[in-house]
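User: I'm designing a mutation panel for Serine/threonine-protein kinase Pkn1 and want to avoid disrupting the core. Could you give me a predicted structure to guide residue selection? Please restate the sequence first so the numbering is unambiguous.

Assistant: Good idea. Sequence first, for numbering, then the predicted C-alpha cells:
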Amino acid sequence: MNTDSTEYDFLDPPLQAGEIGRLGPYRIVAVLGKGGMGQVFQAEDGRLKRTVALKVMNQRFAATPNSRKRFVEEARSMAAVHHDNVATIFEVGLHEGMPFLAMELLKGQSLLDRIKSQPVFPYRDVIRIAREVSQGLAAAHACGIIHRDIKPANIWLESPSGRAKILDFGLAVTGPDHLAPKGAVVGSPGYLSPEQARNEPLDDRTDLYSLGVVLYQLCCGKVPLRVRSLIGQLVAIICRDIVPLRQVNPDLPAPLCELIETLLKKEARDRPDSALRLTQWIDRVDAICQAEQTMAIDIVVDPVAVGAGKAPASPESRWTRRGRDGDPGDGRGRGPVLVWAIGAAMVVVAMLGIGWWGMSGTTTDRGVDQRPQALKPKVTVITSASLAPLKLSPVIAGSSRVVAGQAARFQMRLENQAVSPAADPRSINQGANVAAQIVTYLKIIDADNPNVIARKAPTFPRKVSARQLPSPGQLAEIEIQFLTGSLAPAEYEVTFQLQTPGGTEVSETKSTLTIDENIIESDLLGFETVRTHEGRGADTVVSSAADESMGGGPMLQGLLTTQKGQEVRDHIYLRFDLAKLGIPRDTIDRSVLMMTIAGDGNPSKDEFRVYGIDDPGASDWVESGDGYLDWQHSPLRDGIAGQSFLGRLTFDNSGNHLKDAVDKIRMVGEGLDDFLRSANSDQVTIVLQRTSTSKKPTYFWSREGKPEASPALAVRPRS
C-alpha cells in the first residue's frame, strides 16, 4: 500500500526506521485501511507499549464541524460500552485539531469478508453470531446508545475464537440526531429498518431489525429485500413482505426461522422489546434445536433390524437429520438409515416425558409458547471466600493527568494466589458467566474535607467470567478506562475494587488522577479578556528581510522560509495592558493566549513557539512612527537566550476552515501563567516565532484590521 508521506502529511515526521509517521504518542507503522470518515493505521502506543488500531479522521471531513463532532461522538459512544462483543476503545483525543481514536487491534476478519467466501452459514453458527451480537447490542442499549448501522461490515469475527464483536458506532446516537441533515435517511440501505426508511424517531428495536437482516443473509446468502435504486429500496423495506426463510432454505430449523422473521416485522412493536429479551429467546431457540437434534439422532435405527423400508424425509424434518456440526449425515458404513415417522417420535417423546412443540394440546393464543423451554441453569451464589485468592496489583501504567473529556486509562494485574486446586476460584466457580467484577470509584481529594464520599466512575463494572480468571500462580492483564467529560476538574483518588457479582468486596487497589479543565475548546467561564486594541496594547510584525515599519496593517503575519539562500523570519509582537483587566497579577490562576486566523494564509498544520520578554522596559516599543520596532531593535534578533519560553501554539488549518473563527487558536500552559504573574509591569510583551516552514505566511487579525478579533489574553483569578 502506498505510504508516501505526502499522502499522510497530517502526521508528524517519522523518527525511527519502519515508521510512516507519528501522531502524538503513537508510532504509525502500517496502514490498515480507509473508511467513510477516516483512515485506520496500525500504531504502537509509546506510553503503554501496546499495539493498537488508530482511526484518524479524514482531513476533508475534519474541515466540517458536524463531521468532526460525529467522529468524536462515535468514539465516545464506543468508549462508553464495555463488553466482550463490542470493540474496546482505549483513547479518544485531538492531535493538533485532528480527531482520532485508539482501539484494540483485532485479529480475524469482518463478517462481510467471511460471507464472500461462505455465503450461507450452518444454522449453529447463525445462532452463535446472533447471540453474541445481541449481547453486544444489549450492552450498548444499556448505555442509551443505538448503533443504527448493524451490517456484516460492522461485525468482526475474532481469530481464533470466532467471537463476534460490533464495530464502528459511526452513526450511533444517544438521543435525537441533530447532526444529520433534515430529511436525511442515515444507515446502509440494505439493512435499514422500516422506521429508518420512513425517517422516523428510532429506539433500540431498529438495531434488532438490522440484525434480523444480517441473520437472514447468513441463512440464505442474500438480504431479504434488495432493489437496485435507493428509492426502490426504501419503498420495498416499508411495503414489501419478505420471502419466508424456509421457502429459500428448507433445511433451516423452524424455531430459528420464526425468530428471524419476527425481527423483520415492519412495526417495531411486533419485534422483541429489547436486545436482552432477544438474547433470552435465542437461548431458547438454541435449546430447542439441540433437543430436537439429539432426539432425531437417538431414533435413527437400522431398517434391516426392524424389517422396514426407507421412509422419505419431509421438508419439515429434513433439518433434524443433520449431525451436531450442521453437516448432513450420510450413514456411510452403516447401510440405509431410517428416521421414524411421527408416531415413533411421539412414542419416544411420551416415554421421556418431553412435550413436543405443536403436539401437546391446541394453541389458541399466539402469545403462548408451546415449545420446550431451555432448562434454567442452576444458580450458584459466588461468595467472597471463593474469590479470596484473587488480588489486584497496584496500577502499573496509565493516566495520572488528563484534560476533561479525554479517556482516563489504568492498567493493572489480577493475580490468582490459590495454593491448591480446592482453593482455585476458577475451579470453584467453573462455568460462571460472571465470576467477579471490578468496580471503579472516584473521590475528590479535599484536604479541608477528608470525609468526601467516593462515587462510582462513569463506566460499567468490568465483568470477568470464570474462564477469564488467571490460573493459580498466573497473572491476567486488566485495563479500566472511562471518559472524563462528565467529571469536575479536580484531583481524584481512584479505587479499583474486586467484587463478587453481588457486590461484596474481595480486594482493591488505589491510584490518583488529576483532571484538568479543557480550556482549549470549552467556553471560558469566569475569565476576563484583554485585547491588543485596549489600553496601551499594540501588535506588529518585525521581519529579518525588511527594515520598514510593519505595524498598523490589518493583519499580522508569521513566516519562516528561505529566499535566495537566506532564511527569512517574520516574528509577531503583541503587547497587552493587564491593567485593563482589573485583576492583580499575583492572583492569576489560569490564562489563555487567543488568536484569530485572517486572510488566505497557510492552509495546513502550523506551529509557533511563544516567548515572554522579561527585560525591563521591553514593552516600551511602538508599532509605527519614530522609534518603531524593527528587526535590528527586536529582543529576539540574536536568538531566544534569556527569554521565557511560554509554550507552543499549534493548530491545523487544513482547508482554511479556521479562517475568521474568533479566538479559536489558543495556547495554555503553566509557563504563560507564571510569566503573567511575575511580570515587571502591567504591560507585557509576547512574541510568536513560527517554527513550521512554508513559503506561505500565516495571517492573524491585528487590532487595526478587526479589533473584536485582535490577539487576546483571557485571564481567570484564583477563587
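For picking mutation sites, this is relevant: The radius of gyration is 33 Å. The longest strand covers residues 505-516.
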